Amino acid sequence: MSEEVSELRAGMSAMRGEWERTVQEKLQTLDQAFAERFAALESRMSACLEASEQAAKEKEESQAAARQAETLQQALQRARGFEEELRAELQRLDEAARVAAQAAQAERQQHAEIAQPWKASEERQDSLLAQQSAELAATLERLVGVEALVAEMRSKEDREAKLEERLTTRVEAVEALLSGSRSGEQAVQEQLMTLERRLEERHQQSVKELQKLEGECKEELAFATCSWARVVNWQAEVDLAKLQKDGKLDIASPSFSAAGLQKLQLHLRLQGRESRWTVGVFLQAPRGQVSFRLHLGAKTMSFAAEFDEAPEWGSQRLAVLDSIDRTMNVRLEILDITAPLTKVDYPPCLTASVKFADAVQAAAREATAVRSLMVKRIEWRVGRISERVAAARAAANELGAEEAWEPIVSPPFAAGGFEGLQLHLYPLGYRAKGEETCGFFLLCPKGMYVKCKAFVGDAVRNWDHHYADREPYGRGNFCRLQDKVEADDSVLCGVELQEIRMEHTTQVRGGPFGSIADQMKVVNHPSVGSMELVRELKDAAYGKDPAKPRARSRKTPHQYTHLAPAMDERPAERPMVPLPGMAASKSVPLLLPHVASGSPQKAHLESMAGLPISPSKYPEKSSWR
Predict the structure, then answer these.
(1) Backbone Cα Rg of the chain
(2) Which of 11, 62, 416, 554 is the most buried (most CB within 10 A)?
(3) pTM
(4) 196 shares a domain with 61
């Protein structure tokens, strides 16, 4: 087991190291990719910055050109103003020349009229006109220069407009490039955030997977450790206030693993009234065939359960108590297990199962079987007969009481090489008729034939019976019990075997329809002539506080359907019924409890839950009834 645990731990360490290396490699790969993308982003950003700087320079040049264009525009406006002034002056001069020409014409006419006297005046006018014409020609030349300057200014305006348009286009391109670089930076940041988020999610998922794997490994290691557990003690905390209020209480234990089974759980169920509480204990398991024993104080019951058919097995009436403590100790003892393996990597056509058997129990069974071969006479001493008969009478007088017709049950015993035998004593008789004669029965397994001599005190009855089912057989009106009581308030009863045998039938089926191909019948018939030993069964002491035995209603006859096996059960396939009290009994040789291994057929309850158990050995501690 330690080697498996060390190998499992080494595997977990190797798996954890490999996972850490994988995570480191992935982190290095992501860091390298992030560095490359960041370098590319830096190069793109530097290129964008250079482009933006060039655009800024061009923008400054365009602004200088714009300022020069504005200066030229102002000069052009001033030239236009000067041109307008020149045009106005030219018009004025034209008007003056026209007026002067008209005046000259008039004077010429006058001169012509006057003739000679005015020639000198004419010459002066001609010189004045020539002077004015020269001034007008100079003015016209100046106007031509101004028009050339205006044309040049217009061409500069056109070039400036084109340059401004190009600058506007370039500025828009730079702004678009800058916005694109910003959007690219945002996209890169979003990608980086996405990568970081994915990496964080992957890391968290890996951590969760590692934690899950660690939990599974711990669970499997705990399961492997708990596979050696066969005995589980549970201290059940009882809510007395809720129990007194509701009259019943169901307490569930924590889930646990033991003997190769997981998700086991114990249930403690209490119901009744203030002075009488019925206590039931059940075991829940997911699957498998389990033979187990339940202990509650000094009370014990054994079961052979098949959890594939029912989710829980136990007894609703494991014990009857006068009072309930805040803490009740329940003990589970697992004997045999046959369960399938679920977490095994097998092909679908193969099924694996695990089987655990208690070697001590197997050895005890074999020793008990060997010892019981020599047992012929069984004596059972029942104490405190007067108190029990009085309690049964009081219960019979109560309306609807069912405890008066309940039997006193002996511990299970083995005799003649067969196990699972038991004696039942009815203090007031079975189906009493008012005569207060006791009933005495012998319970044997299915398929057994018994011929015996039964006795209660000195009263003797003979009978023989073949047990077709597991049920009691005997005499309902055996004798008057109080007449057989000895001085110590006890009565000695029992059986002496005269003939005993057991039939085992085995069938082999074959063919497509499963018809019986072969059948074999084996009869186990030990020799009773050589039996000499006497087995004495002593009823446990009741203790200081008297208690009422359980009673059965007169309206309903006693039924033993809870002891009958299933219809499809073959003889000798039903496990024997071990019941408590063996540790308190005195036997020659010593009686040991027995639990048969799990049957492949339908498992049956081996608790006899409807029948009472003899009182415990320590009534002052447990308050058993």
Answers:
(1) 60
(2) 416
(3) 0.41
(4) yes
What does the alpha-carbon distance between residue 258 and residue 225 come to, in Å, rounded to a whole number?
9
Q: Are residues 106 and 220 in the same domain?
A: yes
522 and 599 together in one domain? yes
Residue 68 has pLDDT above 50, yes or no: yes
SS3 391: helix
Instruction: Confirm whether 623 is domain-assigned.
Output: no
**Which of 24-33, 298-307, 527-536, 540-549 shows the lowest per-residue confidence on average (mean pLDDT)?**
540-549
**Torsions phi, psi for 514 (to 5 deg):** 70, 35
CB-CB neighbours of 614 under 10 Å: 26
Confidence of residue 573 (pLDDT cuts 50, 70, 90): very low
Q: Considering 313, 331, 356, which residue would you say is the last residue of a domain? A: 356
Residue 98 has pLDDT above 60, yes or no: yes
Residues in the chain: 625
Q: Which is nearest to 332 in space by CA: 306, 294, 364, 300?
A: 294
Q: Helix %, strand %, coil % for the chain, to 5?
A: 45, 30, 30
Q: Is the preceding omega at residue 411 within 30 degrees of 0, hence cis?
A: no
- Phi and psi of 69, rounded to 5°? -65, -40
| Crossing angle (nearest 10°) for helices 119-226 and 2-114 | 170
pLDDT digits (tens, 9 = 90+) for 250-306: 999 998 888 778 889 999 999 887 777 889 999 999 888 888 889 998 788 888 888
Choose among 55, 61, 425, 4: nearest CA to 220.
4
Residues 366 and 448 in one domain: yes
Sequential DSSP letters for 499-511: EEEEEEEEEEEET
- 348 lies in the same domain as 390: no
Nearest one of 475, 463, 470 to 500, comparing CA atoms: 463
In DSSP notation, 511-566 reads TTTTEEEEEEEEEE---STT--EEEEEEPPP--SS--PPP---SSS----GGG---
| Residue 372 domain flag | yes
| Phi, psi of 478, deg, nearest 5 | -85, -60
Distances (CA, A) of 73 to 143, 148, 168, 273: 19, 15, 20, 117
| Structural domain containing residue 139 | 2-226
φ, ψ of residue 489 to 5 degrees: the values are 60, 40
CATH number for the domain including 548? 2.60.210.10
- List beta partners, residue 413: 421
CA distance 379 to 455: 9
467-495 pLDDT, tens per residue?
A: 988 889 999 889 988 888 999 999 999 99
The 8-class DSSP code of residue 410 comes to P
Q: Does residue 310 share a domain with residue 217?
A: no
| Residue type for position 570 | R
**443 located within any domain:** yes
Establish if 613 belongs to a structural domain. Answer: no
Q: Which amino acid, residue 48?
A: C
Express each pLDDT in 575-604 by its tens digit. Answer: 333 333 333 333 333 333 333 334 333 333
Same domain? 21 vs 117? yes
